Amino acid sequence: MTETRDSIKDIWGPRTGYTGQWPVRVDEQTTETPDHWVQSACVLCSNGCGIDIGVKDGRIVGVRGRAVDRTNYGRLGPKGLNGWVANQSPDRLTKPQIRRNGKLEDATWDEAMELIVSKSKQIIKEHTSGAIGFYTSGQMFLEEYYALAIIGKAGLGTPHMDGNTRLCTATAAAALKVSFGTDGQPGSYTDLDTTEAVLLVGHNMASQQTVLWARILDRLAGPNPPKLVVIDPRLTFTAEKATVHLAPRVGTNIPVMNGLLRLLIEAGHIDPAYIAAHTVGFEELKKIVDKWTPERVERLTGVPADKLREAANILGTCKTLVSTALQGVYQSMQATAAAVQINNLHLLRGLIGKPGAGIYQMNGQPTSQNTRECGADGDLPAFRNWGNPDHIQQLADLWNVHPDQIPHWSPPTHAMQIWRYCETGSIKMLWISGTNPLVSLPDLDRVRKTIEKEDLFVIAQDAFPTETTKYADVVLPAAIWGEKTGCFTNVDRTVHISHKAIDPPGEARSDFDIFVDYSRRMDFRGQDGSPLLTSTWQTTEDAFEAWKKCTKGRPCDYTGMSYAKLSEGSGIQWPCNEAHPDGTEHLYTDGVFNTQIDNCEAYGHDLETGAPHTHDDYKLIDPKGKAFLKGVDYEVPHEVPDEAYPLWLTTGRLVYHFHTRTKTGRSKALNDAAPDSYVQLATEDAARYGIVDGDMVEVTSRRGRVLEPARVGDIEPGLVFIPFHYGYWDKPGRPRAANELTITEWDPVSKQPHYKYAAVRIRKVLA
Amino acid sequence: MHLGNYLGLLENSEKQLCDAFEHVSKKHRDEPDIEQMCAKLSAWSREHRGKVMPFVEKYSKDKSKEPKDLRRDLFSEKRSGSLALLRDLHDLWLLTQEVHLCWTVIQQAALGLRDEDLKATYTFCYARTKRQAEWLLGRIKQAAPQTLLVAA
């Protein structure tokens, strides 16, 4: 039994100031001494730390960080060190279930799958496959997403497939496409080892990616600490370490970013040669940001003009810069436009494609990059463009189907629209895998009414009973991390393999096996009559090899990787191919981007309306490898506080939990560290309403109400905060899910919902 | 000179488009993107109309009395169910084309007149009319297959 530290109390572990390579520190937590260790990577945030799973007598008995891995050099955070115990949770789903007479009852796999197949066939016959939708995850492995993408796009031919990644990283992908032509993070985590400055926008890295944050903390403890600029309305753990902390009002990211860019341009802190050689759109951008003087920014955002100048001075004079963005940007008004402003900052300064200079349009989930890459969301596999007939033909060739079998007549349906089609009765079968929308979607009352509809057949594939499985017509028990083999990719393009360490409990099966089984039972066939997946795929390694073929020549080229190579030591960054056999640290080192008309993943959008541009539109503006500089003006959020609902609500995460706590809530250590939801409010507001710490507070919006214990302080007046993790599976009764209050609306370009603002009122209630 | 006549036609078309966007925004509240985007695009047309008004005054001598109310024809029938959204977007798109064509005609005159203010107004409004139509077309393309093939 080993515990290298109590990570609940000591979240980031001891400091080691450094220059050069980040030193190794192996974190370990085991309850017994393992018989053997199995190589894997952590799935409890998007960082993708290399992890070894300790196994004894066919059970997981602990984990340790992998010293050789470039992502973490042995370190693990509290979720990684404590979350694994959920695998052994006694309430795992172990048998398929079918709803009979209103009640979920145990069934065999044959019964469950045959019911799904007969229902699928009946719906296709009566309504076409456009009445079937898939809502998947950012938690499965790439082999599983690729199988699902082929089933949806080549087997059924439905455009309705998206992931919960729509809620977390859709804007990351959209912003990268807008600026650089395709998805794909330009930078590398190694940039943090040398950079002079870090800009964190709406990204509480200290709570989200604790190990990445430890890397920054170790730089701060070293001889040449970077300066930190943090933009966040709350005084988070991250903001506490900032050199300059800008706390703008909710919904004002665009004015702050426009103001920063204006100051950079005005001071001449830009690289005119780089702008001329490698970008288009500078003059238009300049015109847009020009209005945003520091004084005007201050009036609108509450950020003092002097602080804005201080931040601009750091961002304008540092020789290297790493910028990151997350939900504070992605789930706010004008999400894509604001995220693009961060790309613009780097382009204006020519700080991209070289050591120490990186952009991470962060992912929230461990495998959301793969949902996007593999086309299990509203994208096509390997960053192909739905509007480009050649790209569709390539997929048709790979899958041996007619190109028109692959839906490409308009953008693949985004998640919020899929749910809307369910609500209107146009989608009649919804297959949910590895996600819990009954806690994570906005405006939960509306979601509950939708999923309860009698004409909607719901399949829920999960490892645990959740708020969502409760409503399903068929529940499929899934194997999870540690119980199956597959690969996934983190936010700096590092691909890890996660080997199977133990058998899944009971009859639970991997998502891969379930999807392949569905394909076999549906008898999907290619044009030559051979079975669609099963003719060549026996194992996940076969699927990985097929995926490699799909990526050949695309920006996310995996052709130089193999299960064997990924099992040698560290994870490997794509593109990895003949030219780059050991992977690639930086994209765009030559300043040539993926914006060429035959290469780009999208022909662009109107940033304000979201209208997609066409091939013909793009021909006129094809920048042939130059990056786009684009900007927009400020727009007022759609709901603002008024007399009836005088406060802003914003939502966010806690360091000890992930998503809807399906795993972290089943770890005693993590659950004890943060057992319940709460509402955080400013000292001034608390005094006005006569509320003290621990009082029960009713928070009401136009959509619903929750009851939360109060926590007072460390937040701007007028703003209240509720963590989004908590639902009802372990504590039914008291309404406490933050999404009872949030709004159904989304960004026009990325279609990511706006979780970061809603108008609410509060009152103290007697508990 | 019939410029005033056409400016009246344009002013009225922008008004009809403004009202129609607002009508669709309110009617389709359950479609959040429709509600919000149509409200925004309605505001664009309201702004355009405001910009046109001074020119209507300026060239008002020969303004025609009662331009045709295209909107009444387009949104006349009662619509409900899944087809209603598609048909409403369809009619909105038609209205944008009326505005678009009016602006094209006005631009020709503005060039001939060398009215720099009118040219600037054209440049600003015409580009946004195009963007209104582009958004509608994108949304129509998205809705079409589901509405025509799947929805009950």
From TrEMBL, chain A:
Pfam families, per database record: Molybdop_Fe4S4, Molybdopterin, Molydop_binding
PROSITE patterns: 4FE4S_MOW_BIS_MGD
Keyword terms of this UniProt record: 4Fe-4S, Iron, Iron-sulfur, Metal-binding
Residue span(s) of domain 4Fe-4S Mo/W bis-MGD-type: 35-91
Family annotation (InterPro entries): Asp_de-COase-like_dom_sf, MoPterin_dinucl-bd_dom, Mopterin_OxRdtase, Mopterin_OxRdtase_4Fe-4S_dom, Prok_molybdopt-oxidoreductase
The keyword Metal-binding appears for this protein: yes
Domain of life of the organism encoding this protein: Bacteria
CDD domains, per the entry: MopB_CT_Fdh-Nap-like (cd00508), MopB_Nitrate-R-NapA-like (cd02754)
The protein's name in its UniProt record: Nitrate reductase
From TrEMBL, chain B:
Highest taxon of source: Bacteria
Name by which UniProt lists this protein: Molybdopterin oxidoreductase
